[in-house]
Amino acid sequence: MRMLFSLFGIVLTTAVASAQPSLDIYYLDVEGGAATLIVTPARESVLVDAGWPGNGGRDVDRIQAAMKAAGITRIDHLIVTHYHTDHVGGVPPLLAKVPVGTVYDHGLMSPPHDPDYASNYEAYVKAVPQRKGLAAGDAIGLKPSADGTPVSLSVVAAHGKVLSRASAPRNARCSSVPAKPADTSDNARSVAFVLTYGAFDFFDAGDLTWNTEAELVCPNVNVPAVEVYQVTHHGLDASNHPLLLEALAPTVAVMNNGAKKGGSAATVKTLKSLPSLKALYQLHRNVATGPDDNTTPDLVANPDESPDAGHMVSVHAKKDGSFEVANHRTGEKRSFASAR
Ligand SMILES: [Zn+2]
To answer: Where do the record's region annotations for Disordered lie (predicted)?
Structure first.
């Protein structure tokens, strides 16, 4: 037996390594929009936002390419964080090409919603006759991994309301960051959630804006520390409240900015100042700002302005909280330990 093991040691090790269950997250490049594909250890799939419409079906093509890379043929759960074009616009064309299970959003709105986005909203409602509205405190039931490790997706904000737990610890720093003018757009109603697999946590808040972000951590801190943070609102500084980022204390941040959208210098500065942060990945280099206001070149998936490349960033997480991040342009993979 021992002989067999040493003979086939390499083969066995490889097989075991690739068979070890992981939670996989693919941050698709949809050129300043959002489309994040999550595949659980039980191979259940969650797509968060579906990018833009038009552009010759570019974003649906990129979603299908990522699905193929992940080895899945359907989307079990589709979460629409809010009704802006760069998030919901890709939903009708996606549904025409890909089987989709349950569709979730922050709830339908009788007017007024953002008048500028009314046509996308109407196209979405028409394309998806049955939806599930999510509220803060809701969870989307996901299957555990084969060894019984739970996978959970917990909604912490939706429709402008945030999760509030009386037992949550007080935040002593709330007066240190001023509020911004009230945001009446649909961004403030974005669905925000924490995805957990064993000791690994991921936070995604769509385009949630400053004052609502603040409510998540003031007066009580209602979010856990996470391993990976999807930089909210493409990195715009109307979002990414420093006290929320402090509470999330991410090890890695992934920013789904475009070459000329998001990636604000102020957000990059806040992220770089976090003691917890080991790496900031960007789907694009912000071509309008300098090297100091971007991450290091090796952590950029798409350094050029050309929209043809479409390289993604992916995260592969284990139940002990350790994870690997891949830049699909360079092929480089970095490993990170659990934050806990
Ligand atoms: Zn957006």
So the answer is: 288-340
